[in-house]
């Protein structure tokens, strides 16, 4: 599947609002990929597919997870709001012909992050949070950071996301906590080597 085919597919299966968000994420992802030396074509495809199954029912997502138990490993530990990323990653491989593991990973962890995120993982995660239609108070700081330092921006984004989940009393995916720990370690190591 190429970007043109992906765009056509998501336009057909998403609401207008979700499709607008998807196109904004694509624009942000391509921009950040070009800025930070990642592959803009991979960023475009991952961004186009990241929310492809977001509007499917919980039952449909559960069915995808059950049908692909090996690929869905540990998904049962994740709260239902993150299932759409896992399911989109599964369908990317099983139905949409996406064979690049980097793209699949970026789709899979775009809501949670994970330890050892690749540059593309970080770009898709961050692009989802700073897309043009977003207008929550912290988005302006995240957009500014995104232009200055990818790692710092992603670390701040994951931290804010965990904070919001705690405030709302929602369950936090263990992957998000691992991602934050890993990102903080990476930032500390970077600071130590620059002293």
Automatic annotation (TrEMBL):
A Gene Ontology molecular function term for this protein is: bis(5'-nucleosyl)-tetraphosphatase (symmetrical) activity
Q: Which InterPro entries match?
A: Diverse_Catalytic_Enzymes, HD/PDEase_dom, HD_domain, HDIG_dom, YqeK
Give EC number(s), comma-separated. Answer: 3.6.1.41
Which ranges carry the HD domain? Answer: 18-133
PROSITE patterns the UniProt entry points to: HD
Keywords of the record, alphabetical order, are: Hydrolase, Iron, Metal-binding, Nucleotide-binding
SUPFAM superfamilies on file: HD-domain/PDEase-like (SSF109604)
* Reaction(s) this enzyme catalyzes, per UniProt: P(1),P(4)-bis(5'-adenosyl) tetraphosphate + H2O = 2 ADP + 2 H(+)
Pfam families given in the database record: HD
Give the first-level EC class, as a single word: hydrolase
Keyword Iron recorded: yes
* Record-linked PANTHER family: BIS(5'-NUCLEOSYL)-TETRAPHOSPHATASE, SYMMETRICAL, SLR1885 PROTEIN
| Name assigned to this protein | bis(5'-nucleosyl)-tetraphosphatase (symmetrical)
Q: What organism does the UniProt record list as the source?
A: Allofournierella massiliensis
**Source taxonomy:** Bacteria, Bacillati, Bacillota, Clostridia, Eubacteriales
């Amino acid at each position: 599947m190429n970007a043109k085919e992906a765009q056509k597919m998501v336009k057909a299966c998403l609401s207008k609002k979700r499709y607008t968000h998807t196109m904004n994420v694509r624009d942000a992802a391509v921009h950040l990929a070009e800025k930070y030396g990642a592959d803009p074509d991979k960023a475009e495809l991952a961004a186009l597919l990241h929310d492809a199954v977001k509007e499917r029912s919980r039952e449909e997502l559960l069915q995808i997870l059950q049908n692909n138990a090996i690929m869905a490993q540990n998904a049962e530990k994740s709260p239902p709001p993150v299932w759409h990323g896992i399911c989109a990653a599964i369908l990317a491989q099983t139905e949409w012909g996406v064979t690049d593991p980097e793209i699949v990973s970026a789709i899979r962890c775009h809501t949670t992050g994970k330890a050892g995120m690749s540059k593309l993982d970080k770009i898709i995660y961050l692009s989802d949070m700073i897309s043009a239609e977003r207008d929550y108070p912290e988005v302006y700081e995240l957009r500014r950071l995104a232009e200055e330092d990818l790692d710092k921006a992603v670390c701040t984004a994951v931290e804010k996301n965990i904070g919001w989940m705690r405030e709302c009393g929602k369950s936090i995916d263990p992957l998000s906590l691992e991602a934050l720990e890993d990102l903080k370690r990476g930032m500390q190591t970077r600071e130590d080597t620059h002293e």
